[in-house]
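Memo subject: From amino acid sequence to discrete backbone structure tokens
Keywords: amino acid chain, backbone geometry, structure tokens, three-dimensional fold.
Body of memo: The sequence and its backbone structure tokens, given next.
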Amino acid sequence: MNVAMGIGGTLLSKMLAAKTWTIVNEDTLKEVQGQFPHDGLTYDVGSNYAEIQTLNRQNPVLQYLNGETDKLQLQARFFRRDMLDEAPSKKMDTLVEWTRRDQRLGRPPILRFWVGDGTQFVMRVVLVGIAGITYSTPHFFGGMREVKFTLNFKRFTPFSLNDQQITDTRYHRTKESEYYELIAAAEYGNPLLGDIIRNLKEQIGKAILKPGDVVKLPAIEGVRTQKVTPRSIILQGAYGRKETAQKALRNEYFAARSVARPMYFLEPPAQLGDTPAVEALLLSTEDLDPITTEDDDNLVVPVL
């Protein structure tokens, strides 16, 4: 009779498996599955805000700071019905091991948690702790028959140094005669960062600001490490000992500006006979004798 009841209990546990919970170690693919539906499953999400009090305002201004890590809490139990069931202490040892640092990985393992068939509630998590582990009294043979516990998880979100962090703090509505460098000087104390703000995708089509335009201002952490480089081909790399294309272009430009050009002079009115000096000034350049800058001795300045 007892054997039949034990076998029936084992079959019942297999049937309940579709309604229970499962945890899989993604690094080793080892699996721990609950025997029964959970005793309680809670999921906490939230964000952090700062309240800024202002004069004559009933409600404070709420400023978003950052998000909180999603938290998951599971209350469950392991129970050994018969000799065919795995000892609860072995399953608990596995869960305890997953809360600790793996010597090979250098960190605790990343887990995948789901409830039921895994189509409605699936989450990548880390097991941050196990609370309230309660063991039953030993049975006739000295082993533990039941253990109750609470698993505390946090959602795992992969991180990379190449991730673009969202660091928007506020938006600025422009006034008359404002431009990006002026706004950056007031916001960050560095007008050069205005070029970084100008090139944000939100500022496309707004190279020249008009009163009432809304300018997106990232937090200083989002622009601190970005480098502002000269865009003019004349200035960038145009100076120094190294021969660069910009330096050659600068020398070519200066050489073209240094070429001697013809100059013209007006003879004194006495040498022009009866022609008044005013008429001499109205003569076309075609009637004047060209000289170069080297003919300084022959240069005559007309006196009116």
Q: What stands out?
A: Residues 28 and 164 are 31 Å apart (CA to CA). The chain has four domains: 2-155, 168-223, 230-258, 263-298. The radius of gyration is 41 Å. Helices lie at 2-16, 88-98, 180-188, 194-198, 220-223, 245-257, 277-281.
